[in-house]
Amino acid sequence: MWAPLRHRLFRALWIAQLVSNTGTWMQTVGAQWLMGDLGGGALAIALVQTAATLPIFLLVVPAGALGDILDRRRLLLTSQVITFTGAAGLAALTAADATTPALLLVLTGAMAVGQAFAVPTFQAIQPELVSLDEIPQAALLNGANGNVARAIGPALGGVLIALAGPEATFALNALSLLGIVLVLYVWKRPPDHRPLGAEHIRDAIRAGARYVRSAPQFASVLYCSVVFTLCASGMWALLPALARGPLGLGAGGYGLLLAGVGSGAVIGAFVLPVARGRAGPNTLVAASTTCYALAMTVIGTVESVPIVLAALVVAGLAWITVLSTLSASAQLLLPEWARARSLAYYQLVFMGGQAVGSLVWGTVADALTLRAAFLLPAALLILSTPIGVSRVPLPTEHLDMSQVSHYPEPPSDLRHSRGPLLVVVEWRVGPENAEAFLEVMRQIGRARRRTGATMWSIFQDMEEPTLYLETFTAETAHEHLRQHVERGTAMDQELDLQALSLVMEGRFPEVRHLIWAYAPMPGAETKEPEFRSIVSLLRPR
Length: 541
Hints:
GO molecular function: transmembrane transporter activity
Subcellular location: Cell membrane
Membrane topology: Multi-pass membrane protein
CATH superfamily of the largest domain: MFS general substrate transporter like domains
Number of helices: 19
InterPro entries: MFS_dom (IPR020846), MFS_trans_sf (IPR036259), TM_effector (IPR010290)
Keywords: Cell membrane, Membrane, Transmembrane, Transmembrane helix, Transport
């Protein structure tokens, strides 16, 4: 489990994030407490959590797109500076007794904006910090990092508030960010290789959405994440009510319960590497989901603090197992060009599942009983596990997502935004290979859509049954060029080679490119011949 920590940069960033995550939880406790001191009621105190999460939910998708089109190190530095400014400003205003409820919400939201730009990019840089075979361990360590901070941060925040007031939690949160800033500042990250230049953020967001829609393996990860978080979030949302109500605990007792979850996550960091060597991801997720459901059942029905504490340790272990397995699978399934923007959807699903689940199970607790709000999601987890394993299993085979370019240098004639572009590929396939060819083309169609095609189809000529026409469109000629130069993967190339192995001997596929006839064409008297001249360059290799 400790293998990723052998890498100096990962180790330094992991330690800095542990300190920063702890500071963030201290900040959360301090902000909620301060809102009460300022005369805010239950709604105002709840709005603090809204201000801390809503900007992330709204901005994480464009933030992920920026993580793929800008230098990730500089984007992370900018995000940390934004968060630091909000925390330092709040500390100074609170120390001067100048904070108002509105200012508190605004500055909390400003810090969340900084976090929104950091969340998908921090995940996207993991393959740059460790080797591919160490990504599961890195995801596990990062998950343990967050859970340990969740356990100790609120307790430290409560102590600081009692000793020095809420402003102390804000000041220490600001200081905790400096470690990440320092690590990122000294990181000598190689420059990104973008032969076609950076994408416009609007185009990058659309390309990310297309990729997610056309990647069934990644969709399996999203499905597992949303089902698990929708149900599992009930425990996190209702744990304070359980502590105050049936268990009769105060603030210190609630902190003890959180420490139980955190200790389970730490135990999971030791146990999971051994379990991963003996079981695949589907077995791990299914077993851990079942354990989490059983733990929720115990937590919601038993009123003995030691038994509940033991069940919370099991829940923490199961929580970290499921989330680290899903996170590692997501990172391994994504190519470099789409990693941050696709992981943004993973974060969106995760956060949305928690937000909706908390609302649903809180409503159930008010309408029925607290016990029902624990038992219902536990039952849903147990029922959904066999369905998920059989219908949308996580991928188990290794997929080579390394970048492969068709050309060492892109043709300059397609460096413009004319479009849409229609690509027509003529395939000649004998009847003996027709079935295998169509099955491969189904997968190639998904690959075309993942890399930028807006529509894809394949037709068979009724008069010449050996002739198949593959057609797909791209928004612009430049977008199609990105498919060739920046977005191809070794897995996609292998699919192309499989299709080429099935064509009739000596009948290499012929490719034609057609521009929308009404598209404006600067320099029409010279561009059209040049465009036709590069058709041969765009044939599949």
